[in-house]
Amino acid sequence: MKKDLCQIKLVIFDLDGTLVDTEKIYQAGWRTVLKDYNATISQELLEKMRGGTRKHNNRLIQDILGGDESLAQEAREKRNAYFKEVISEGKIDLKVGAFELLEYLQVNGLSLAVATSSPIDRGQDILEISGLMPYFDFVIYGNQIEHGKPQPDIFLKVLEHFQVSSQEAVVIEDSLNGLLASTRAEIPTFYVPEIPLRNGEFDHVNEDYLIGVYPSLKAIKDFLKTKR
């Protein structure tokens, strides 16, 4: 799509996989925990969980564990403990160009927000430990809305908070679930996938609201500098 970037007032970021490289911790956690149940998880299934709601992902884990809901919840609690232990040691890597892009956007007077599927406790830990929290004017977490990504609700809440239209904002996302949510909200979106989409996965994406696919946050910053 062609987008007049001069009218942008707000930039909305996803968190996990977009600003911080936490997806590898989540995935290692699931692999480690599921060994306790003599179970394994495929990379394809891990990718389906990327950016998904807790309910959606719990259902996938439940299927792996023979449909046992209590075991799935127990496994999630163990995975959460694994994640908390890792990040408490300060082991959160930022995505390439994260600080540089945030600083560029701030200097240019744009409002910045995070719309993440992570619940409040984990999301706040990630933002604080990574040093990202001070950059953001508003953060909304996955457990603060009824319908998570790929539904558009979380992004619509951010627009409502800032009282801007969808055409006065852009989203930066790394997951298919996030991309579906932002384009369903009719917000122009920069897509920075860690894993390229497979054939057919773009079929349900409204490409009218896809600005483009970019290799990094640095590439988005370089693009914006040519447009403002």
TrEMBL record:
SUPFAM superfamilies named in the record: HAD-like (SSF56784)
InterPro entries reported in the protein's UniProt record: HAD-like_sf, HAD-SF_hydro_IA, HAD_2, HAD_sf, PGP-like_dom2
Pfam families the record matches: HAD_2
Superkingdom of the organism of origin: Bacteria
PANTHER family attached to this UniProt entry: 2-DEOXYGLUCOSE-6-PHOSPHATE PHOSPHATASE 2 (PTHR18901), PSEUDOURIDINE-5'-PHOSPHATASE (PTHR18901:SF38)
NCBIfam families (alphabetical): HAD-SF-IA-v3
Name under which the protein is recorded: HAD family phosphatase
Organism taxonomic ancestry: Bacteria, Bacillati, Bacillota, Bacilli, Lactobacillales
